Amino acid sequence: MVSDEKPSPRRLAKAGAVFCGVIIALFIIIFVARNVWHGEELERDQATGNNVATEHTGPSYNQQP
C-alpha cells in the first residue's frame, strides 16, 4: 500500500513552517535556559565572593595608573 501521490504545495508549506517553528523554538528554549543557568551561577558566585565577572584577561582591563 504505497501511495505515489505527492503532498500538495500547501501541505508542504505547512510542514516546512512547522519544522522551522520547532527549530526556532528549540534555539529560544536553549538560549533562555542558558541565560537562566548563567544568572544563577553568577548570583551564587557573587554571594560566596567568587565573582569572576569583573576579572578579565588582557592588558587593557588590568592596567595600573
Give structural notes:
The structure is a single chain. The chain is an all-alpha fold. The chain has one domain (9-54). It is 62% helix and 0% strand. The chain has one helix at 9-48. The protein starts with 8 loop residues before the first helix and ends in a 17-residue tail after the last helix. Residues 44-65 are annotated as: Disordered.
Short summary:
Helix content is 62%, strand content 0%. The protein has 1 helix and no strands.
Feature tags:
mainly alpha; 1 helix
Helices and strands in order:
Elements: H1 9-48
Number of helices: 1
Cα end-to-end separation: 81 Å
Q: What general outline do the C-alpha atoms trace? A: rod-shaped
Helix amount, in percent? 55-70%
What Rg do the Cα atoms give? 24 Å
Keywords: Membrane, Transmembrane, Transmembrane helix
